[in-house]
Amino acid sequence: MRLIGAGSHPDRPQVDHDLIFTVPNILTVLRFMGVPLFVWLVLSEQEYGFAVLVLVIMGSTDWVDGYIARRFDQTSKLGRILDPMADRAALLAVAFTLAIAGVVQWWYLAALLVPDAVLAIASLIYFRSHPDLPVSIIGKIRTGLLLIGTPLLVLSKLPVAFTDVYFVAAWTFLGLGLVGHWVAAYNYFWAILRKGKELKTDDGGRG
User: Fold this and answer.
1) What is the pLDDT of residues 20-61, one digit of tens each?
2) What pLDDT score does 184 carry?
3) Which of 122, 155, 165, 205 measures 20 to 30 Å from 132, CA to CA?
């Protein structure tokens, strides 16, 4: 089974329906709800073990909702926008929480936040809203790497065996994820510029 694009049907094109209440969208909302639970477990309760479990569940739903959407024809226009927003909000909120808790340095949060801030500003300038661009392969791989590395990093802070191994593995995934994050942001930035210029050209032609 493919990890990327799992559940898709090569014999027919994917159609984004005007649907709201779908299983993938519900799973995406649940992923949003996992963020405050993670924050509470880390900052209030210092329950890192349960925090790791929450991260694992959040990461798994990211793959499951995509599989269900493609496999059972539940892809939607809302889901195409909501799913990457949930991923980004989760990654930033988790990074912010771990920075406060001293698990990661603040530069890690900045490395995640700066590209997203640039893309948000570019989107507002050209579209006044979400640019509605397709998620790139690099973006998907980046998200997967960060979602694997983060729980491993939290796990390395627990009083368990092989903490050094978890730590090295965590930063291997996170380091690659950060590189992918900047590469994906670079590609998205130019995609935003191209789409924005095309829309302005079309509007000028109709005028």
Assistant:
1) 888 888 988 888 889 999 999 999 998 999 999 999 998 888
2) 95
3) 205
Q: At what angle do helices 48-71 and 77-100 cross, to 10 degrees?
A: 170
- Average pLDDT of the residues in 142-151: 92
Is residue 9 pLDDT above 60, yes or no? Answer: no
- Burial class of residue 205, CB neighbours in 10 A (0-12, 13-18, 19+): exposed
Q: Which amino acid is at 61?
A: T
The rounded mean pLDDT for the chain is 86
What does the angle CA 113 – CA 152 – CA 50 come to, to the nearest 5 degrees? 95
Tell me the DSSP string of 23-83.
HHHHHHHHHHHHHHHHHIIIIIS--HHHHHHHHHHHHHHHHHHHHHHHHTT--BHHHHHHH
Structure tokens at 87: 């991923």
Q: How many alpha carbons lie under 13 Å from residue 50 in its C-beta half-sphere?
A: 13
Closest alpha carbon to 192 in 180, 202, 184: 184
